[in-house]
């Protein structure tokens, strides 16, 4: 006696129901109804699934499908994640699925604004900036019924870091609105012009709160300048809360404008005491004051701002005469920005020192180079030497032992010059050139010298390059698109 | 950083009036009062300016603003004499007109706002240059005082100065410390405020005999103002902040294992193999230029 199999039976029912008989037939490959049962269960016989969701929510996998024949001739389940539903092509290794598209959050009509002025050191968001934006996000999202928006204000030339929709990654860091002053004036030291802009923003957009990173790279100074200006204008709430690292109380109160409901804790100037005070309108936040935004992307809509002339109207009582050449060897290794580091692969030490001085890089070394007496101990990079924080680290003839790699964990860009393309330093590097270190350094010096002599010839001929701070368009701060 | 000694002002007629603002510091370990680290550096900067200019071209005075008078031999007195020991004949105490007046409210720790006193005094004395430390070591240490002075006097303020290169009657050329050991040259219109942080050259030692010899003179100016906000602050010994944990967001056991056991992984780095040394060098130069580390 056979029970007719209705393929639509399972779909008609709203509740998922199991049919044990059908499942048994689907499991038994020798059953005469096997193929029909497979189809009824939605698993085509043509391409048997490797994994599926079992009835209890546990992933099941078919060992007959996702396997390969190992070296000893036996079937092995492939656990590398290279096959299966995630990897589309069977043949190619699956390194493709990298560009994660984060869900976009748009806040059309915010109830209030939280202003953040990230430092954008070197034109990029620092991790400190991200933490501050994360804190701003927490405050803006504290009350879903009274949704706020985060306004990021940036100055100067920025670097393209993100994708087309979010060019500097401010959206992914949590900014809903974005005000950018692109004037190259801000690349130098223009505290008064920036203060004028910030004050104008405070007057016009009236953000509930100003959050700035408490840093020596701009945030601390901007916040204090703004605070002093607003205090002297009679706004007692504008007194900056420095070195702040914690907000206590109901964050939703900030959105309603009841700042006293929240207290802020920060270190005193000497770092020995914690001061707790009612929240003020300007908070200078320490690093790690909050978790950075993850997994979502905010719109970072450019705001239209017509007060671009404010900056120019400020009297130029502080004039930036530009950076001064500093002897790179006088900079402590731990805080050097650009390090040229030598390892056991260096033969021509004079060439290395020449390259370092021509590049204007601080010299570093691996332990072997130090042990062999070519470099002083104070120049050793790594676990037993100095943990460096350079933005650019060039490793010449260094194999990348783990003790060395530990020391360069916090470097942004690593360049490796090595004869061995398989060494660990090359794996770590953002750019690696496989070749002889001596020849590459010599060529580097040669190219630099050729360029510099060309430039000095040109300037000798009377074509001194114009100072960058004087050539900028006045209206560059006006941004095209309008924010809701 | 090489100071151009020859170009420092030589106006025999009117000396450059320089005021160094000094405060009470506190030793981070013992908690005893001492000269403040940054203020001492500020004074050192002034002394260096005095030394590098012609004799008589700079007239330097040091001021300490205080809500009350300071008794001879008290801990405050000892601490302030640390500045005198750096080679000063006298130090001016700027106090309110009625220093002994009762506090406005009965609070445990009355906090006196000293910046109004200094503003009044600076308006009277009208020096060309005021040099101070960036952040105080006692009390709130908000680092706001130089900004408030600059804002109420309408003077420019520059932070983080490490050397004064030259100073004529109208402008000041100074080097400003940037992070990572970099320096920037600034030209500031006088009168101006300059603040100094720990990047500036270390202060000289304080000589004991000079500290004893020097004189603290009191000068009353302005009204006593209480910082009512700061009096309400809750003060507690600094709590150690927890380190942020490295959070691993892995969706599968394999990812978790990899995150725990990972060492150097082949990132998406660019790799140049089999190119000539010239091409390799050109590519490196290109990256260095993009990063802006090449000058
Ligand atoms: C407890 C302990 C602590 C340590 N702490 C540190 C530390 O703090 N810092 C540190 O650096 N090390 C440290 N080490 C040592 C570390 O393990 C390695 O031995 C060391 O880093 C290797 O240095 P290297 O890369 O210069 O030399 P090698 O490993 O010899 O590598 C030389 C590299 O140069 C390349 N090369 C050779 N010739 C050329 C050429 N002509 N052109 C280009 N490339 C060439 C080679 O391919 C090779 O990759 C420590 C070791 C221990 C045990």
UniProtKB/TrEMBL annotation, chain A:
What Pfam families is this protein classified in?
A: ETF, ETF_alpha
Q: Which residues form the Electron transfer flavoprotein alpha subunit C-terminal domain?
A: 333-409
Do you know which SUPFAM superfamilies this protein is assigned to? Adenine nucleotide alpha hydrolases-like, DHS-like NAD/FAD-binding domain
Q: Where is this region: Disordered?
A: 456-484
Q: Where is the signal peptide?
A: none
Keywords from the UniProt entry? Electron transport, Transport
Q: Specify the protein name.
A: Electron transfer flavoprotein subunit alpha/FixB family protein
Q: Where is the Electron transfer flavoprotein alpha/beta-subunit N-terminal domain?
A: 121-230
Organism of this sequence: Cobetia amphilecti
- Entry similarity comment: Belongs to the ETF alpha-subunit/FixB family.
Q: Which Gene3D superfamilies match?
A: HUPs, TPP-binding domain
């Amino acid at each position: 006696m056979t029970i007719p199999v209705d393929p639509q039976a399972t779909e008609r029912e709203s509740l998922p129901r199991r049919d044990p008989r059908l499942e048994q037939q689907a499991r038994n490959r020798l059953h005469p109804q096997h193929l029909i049962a497979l189809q009824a269960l939605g698993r085509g016989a043509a391409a048997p699934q490797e994994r599926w969701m079992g009835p209890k929510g546990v992933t099941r996998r078919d060992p007959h499908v996702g396997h390969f024949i190992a070296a000893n001739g036996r079937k092995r389940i492939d656990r590398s994640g290279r096959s299966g539903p995630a990897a589309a092509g069977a043949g190619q290794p699956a390194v493709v699925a990298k560009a994660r598209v984060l869900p976009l959050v748009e806040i059309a009509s915010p109830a209030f604004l939280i202003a953040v002025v990230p430092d954008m050191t070197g034109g990029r968001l620092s991790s400190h900036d991200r933490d501050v934006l994360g804190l701003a996000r927490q405050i803006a999202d504290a009350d879903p019924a009274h949704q706020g928006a985060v306004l990021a204000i940036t100055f100067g030339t920025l670097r393209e870091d993100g994708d087309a929709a979010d060019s500097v990654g401010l959206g992914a860091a949590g900014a809903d609105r974005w005000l950018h002053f692109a004037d190259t004036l801000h690349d130098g030291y223009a505290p008064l012009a920036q203060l004028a802009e910030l004050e104008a923003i405070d007057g016009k957009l009236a953000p509930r709160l100003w959050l700035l990173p408490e840093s020596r790279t701009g945030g601390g100074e901007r916040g204090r300048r703004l605070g002093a200006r607003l205090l002297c204008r009679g706004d007692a709430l504008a007194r900056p809360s420095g070195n702040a690292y914690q907000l206590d109380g109901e964050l939703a109160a900030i959105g309603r404008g009841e700042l006293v409901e929240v207290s802020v804790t920060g270190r005193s100037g000497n770092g020995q005491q914690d001061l707790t005070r009612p929240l003020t309108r300007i908070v200078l936040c320490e690093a790690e004051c909050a978790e950075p935004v993850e997994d979502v992307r905010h719109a970072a809509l450019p705001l239209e701002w017509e007060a671009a002339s404010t900056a120019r109207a400020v009297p130029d009582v502080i004039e930036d005469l530009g950076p001064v050449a500093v002897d790179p060897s006088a900079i402590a290794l731990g805080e050097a920005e650009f390090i040229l580091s030598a390892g056991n692969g260096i033969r021509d030490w004079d060439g290395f020192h020449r390259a370092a001085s021509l590049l204007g890089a601080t010299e570093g070394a691996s332990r072997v180079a130090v042990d062999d007496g070519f470099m002083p101990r104070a120049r050793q990079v790594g676990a037993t030497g100095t943990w460096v924080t350079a933005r650019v680290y060039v490793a010449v003839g260094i194999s990348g032992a783990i003790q060395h790699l530990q020391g360069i964990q916090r470097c942004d860009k690593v360049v490796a010059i090595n004869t061995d393309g398989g060494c660990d330093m090359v794996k770590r590097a953002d750019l690696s050139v496989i070749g002889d270190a001596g020849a590459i350094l010599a060529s580097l010096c040669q190219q630099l010298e050729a360029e510099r002599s060309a430039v000095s010839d040109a300037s000798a001929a009377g074509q001194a390059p114009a100072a960058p701070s004087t050539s900028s368009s006045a209206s560059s701060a006006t941004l095209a698109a309008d924010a809701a | 950083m090489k100071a151009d000694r020859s170009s420092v002002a030589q106006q025999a007629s009117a000396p450059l009036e320089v005021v160094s603002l000094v405060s009470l510091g506190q030793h981070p370990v013992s908690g005893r009062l001492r000269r403040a680290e940054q203020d001492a550096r500020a004074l050192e900067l002034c002394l260096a300016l005095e030394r590098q200019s012609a004799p008589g071209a700079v007239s330097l005075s040091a001021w300490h603003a205080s809500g009350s008078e300071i008794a001879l031999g008290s801990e405050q007195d000892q601490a302030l004499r640390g500045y005198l020991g750096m080679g000063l004949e006298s130090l001016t105490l700027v106090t309110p007109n009625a220093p002994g007046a009762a506090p406005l409210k009965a609070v445990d720790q009355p906090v006196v706002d000293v910046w109004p006193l200094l503003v009044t005094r600076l308006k009277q004395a009208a020096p060309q240059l005021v040099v101070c430390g960036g952040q105080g070591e006692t009390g709130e240490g908000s680092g706001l005082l130089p900004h408030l002075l600059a804002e109420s006097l309408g003077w420019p303020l520059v932070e983080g100065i490490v050397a004064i290169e030259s100073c004529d009657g109208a402008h000041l050329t100074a080097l400003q410390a940037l992070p990572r050991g970099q320096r920037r040259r600034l030209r500031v219109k006088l009168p101006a405020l300059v603040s100094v942080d720990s990047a500036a050259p270390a202060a000289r030692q304080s000589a004991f005999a000079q500290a004893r010899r020097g004189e603290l003179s009191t000068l009353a100016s302005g009204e006593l103002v209480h910082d009512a906000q700061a009096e309400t602050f809750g003060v507690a010994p600094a709590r150690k902040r927890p380190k942020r944990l490295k959070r691993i967001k892995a969706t599968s056991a394999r990812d978790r294992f990899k995150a725990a056991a990972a060492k150097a992984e082949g990132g998406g780095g660019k790799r140049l193999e089999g190119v000539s040394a010239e091409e390799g060098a050109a590519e490196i130069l290109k990256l260095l230029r993009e990063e802006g580390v090449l000058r």
